[in-house]
Design brief:
The protein is built from five helices and 20 strands. By secondary structure, it is an alpha+beta fold.
Length: 462
C-alpha cells in the first residue's frame, strides 16, 4: 500500500465537505432549496457555522485517516483486517449518530390553544386613603380630655378631645351678662321715650291754649312764649330719648354678637369628627399645651381606602377607569382581592416614567394596612381563546411581528406571524400568519432545521 500525506488528505476531505454545503447555499439563494437554520439563528449565520464546522471536521477526519492509512501500509494482513473492521464500525456509528442528530424525527413542544385568558398589566403600589385629615383645635389651650386612640372608628360629630375651657366659659358668662344689661338699657330707654312723649304732648297742649289766650288778650305774650319754648324743649327731649333707644338697640346687638362669638370660641375647645372616620395617629397626650391649629389626630375615611400603584408608561395605554383588577397585599401573598381602576392621574412620574393609577377595593378589607406594599394586576382585555408563544421562541422580533418555528404535516418550518396582546409571563398572542393546521413550537432546542421531520411531545395539539 502506498502512503499518503495526512495534511493533504484532511484538506481534500474538508474542501469536499465545504464545497457540498456551499453548493447548497447557492441552491437556496437561487430558490431551488430550503434554507436551514439552527435554533433562532438566521440562515446566513447558520450556513457559515455549518460550512466552517464541516471544513474543520473534514480536515480532522481526513488527517486521522491519513495517519491510519500510513500505519496500515506497513502492517500485516491480519492487522489491516482488524483496522478495517474498526473503521467500518466507526463509520457505521458515525452514520447512526448523524441520522440521530440530523435525520431522525425530533420531538418538540408546541403551544396549546388556551381559552379565557386575561391580558393584564402589573404594577407595584401602596395602600393609601384618598381622604386623610390632620385635625386639631382652632384655639390654643391645654388638652384635658382624650376620648379616642389609634384604630378607633368614630361617627361624624363624635367628640374626640377637649381643651380646658374654664376661662372661656367665664368670658361667655360675662358676654351674656353684658347682653342682659344691654337689654335692660333698651327697656330703660324705651320707658324714657314714653315719658318724653307724654311731656311733649302736655307741653304742646299748654302751648296751644296759651296761643289762643294771647290772641284774645287773656294772657300775656311772655306766658305764650314760655309755653312755646317749653313745647320745643319737650320735642327735643323726645328726640334725645329716641336716639337713646337706637343706641341701646345697637348695644344689645353688639352684646349678643359678642356672646355668640364667645359661645363659638367655647365650642372650639371641643374637637369633633368631621366625618365617619378611623383614627390612624394620635400626636398629642393629656396635659399638652397646644397652639391653635396644631394637629392632635390623623383621620382617614375608611370608605376611601385604595391602592396607589405605579404602571410603566409603555404598558399603561390600555388601562381605563372601571377595568377589573386584582390586589395582592404583601401580608397576604396567597390571596387575590378583587378591585377596580378608580382613577388614572393625568400626570406621570417624570423620573421613573410611570403612570400613577388608583385601584379601589370591591370590598375594603376589615383590617387594611395603610402604607403596605401591594401588587396590582389590572385586566385590560379578556381573550376568548388564542395561541400564545414565549418570547424566547421568537426570532427577528419586532413590535408586532416575528418569526416562529411551526410543525406542519410532520415537518419543521419557519414562518413570520403577527402578534396581539402580550401576557404578564412574556408570551405573545399570535393573531395572524399561522398556516391552517400548524402547531407553534414553544420551546427551542438543538437540531431544529427547516424540512426536518418532527413529532409533538406529549401527543397531538389540542
Amino acid at each position: 500500500m502506498r502512503s499518503v500525506n495526512p495534511i493533504k488528505a484532511g484538506a481534500a476531505l474538508g474542501a469536499v465537505g465545504g464545497a457540498f454545503h456551499l453548493g447548497r447555499v447557492v441552491l437556496v439563494e437561487l430558490g431551488w432549496g430550503e434554507p436551514h437554520t439552527i435554533g433562532s439563528l438566521g440562515f446566513p449565520l447558520t450556513a457559515a457555522i455549518i460550512i466552517s464546522s464541516t471544513v474543520v471536521i473534514g480536515f480532522v477526519v481526513g488527517f486521522g485517516f491519513g495517519i491510519l492509512w500510513n500505519r496500515l501500509a506497513t502492517s500485516t494482513t491480519l492487522t489491516r483486517a482488524v483496522w478495517l473492521a474498526v473503521c467500518l464500525l466507526v463509520v457505521g456509528g458515525a452514520g447512526v449518530g448523524a441520522w440521530a442528530l440530523f435525520l431522525r424525527p425530533i420531538a418538540v413542544q408546541v403551544a396549546q390553544v388556551e381559552r379565557n385568558v386575561p391580558a393584564q398589566v402589573f404594577g407595584l403600589g401602596t395602600v393609601e386613603a384618598r381622604v386623610t385629615s390632620k385635625v386639631g383645635f382652632k384655639v390654643s389651650g391645654v388638652l384635658v380630655d382624650l376620648r379616642v386612640d389609634v384604630r378607633d372608628r368614630v361617627e361624624k360629630g363624635a367628640v374626640l378631645a377637649r381643651l380646658d375651657d374654664r376661662e372661656q366659659r367665664a368670658r361667655l358668662a360675662r358676654a351674656k351678662a353684658a347682653a342682659e344689661q344691654a337689654q335692660a338699657n333698651l327697656e330703660k330707654a324705651t320707658a324714657n321715650v314714653d315719658k318724653a312723649n307724654a311731656n311733649y304732648d302736655n307741653a304742646r297742649n299748654i302751648n296751644e291754649r296759651r296761643q289762643k289766650l294771647v290772641a284774645g288778650n287773656i294772657t300775656s305774650i311772655e306766658q305764650a312764649d314760655a309755653a312755646k319754648a317749653a313745647e320745643g324743649a319737650a320735642r327735643a327731649d323726645l328726640a334725645v330719648t329716641a336716639s337713646d333707644v337706637a343706641v341701646a338697640r345697637a348695644a344689645i346687638s353688639d352684646a349678643k354678637a359678642q356672646a355668640q362669638q364667645e359661645a363659638a370660641t367655647l365650642d372650639f375647645h371641643t374637637l369633633a369628627a368631621p366625618y365617619d372616620a378611623m383614627v390612624i395617629a394620635r400626636q398629642k397626650e393629656l396635659g399638652s399645651a397646644l397652639a391653635a391649629g396644631e394637629p392632635v389626630f390623623t383621620l382617614i375615611d375608611p370608605e376611601t381606602v385604595w391602592v396607589l400603584t405605579y404602571i410603566d408608561e409603555s404598558k399603561a395605554g390600555e388601562i381605563r377607569v372601571g377595568k377589573p383588577a386584582e390586589i395582592v397585599l404583601r401580608s397576604l401573598p396567597g390571596q387575590r382581592i378583587p378591585g377596580r381602576v378608580a382613577r388614572i392621574e393625568p400626570e406621570s412620574d417624570r423620573v421613573n416614567e410611570e403612570r400613577r393609577v388608583e385601584v379601589a377595593f370591591d370590598r375594603i378589607p376589615d383590617d387594611f394596612p395603610l402604607g403596605e406594599q401591594a401588587e396590582v394586576y389590572i385586566t385590560t382585555a379578556q381573550l376568548d381563546q388564542g395561541v400564545f408563544v414565549p418570547q424566547a421562541a421568537i426570532a427577528a422580533l419586532k413590535p408586532d411581528r416575528g418569526t416562529v418555528w411551526i410543525v406542519k404535516d410532520g415537518h419543521l418550518e419557519q414562518v413570520e406571524v403577527s402578534f396581539g396582546q402580550r401576557l404578564l409571563d412574556g408570551r405573545r398572542e399570535i393573531t395572524g400568519g399561522l398556516p391552517e393546521g400548524a402547531a407553534v413550537v414553544s420551546a427551542l432546542r438543538g437540531g431544529l432545521r427547516a424540512g426536518r421531520s418532527a413529532t409533538i411531545a406529549g401527543g397531538r395539539m389540542r
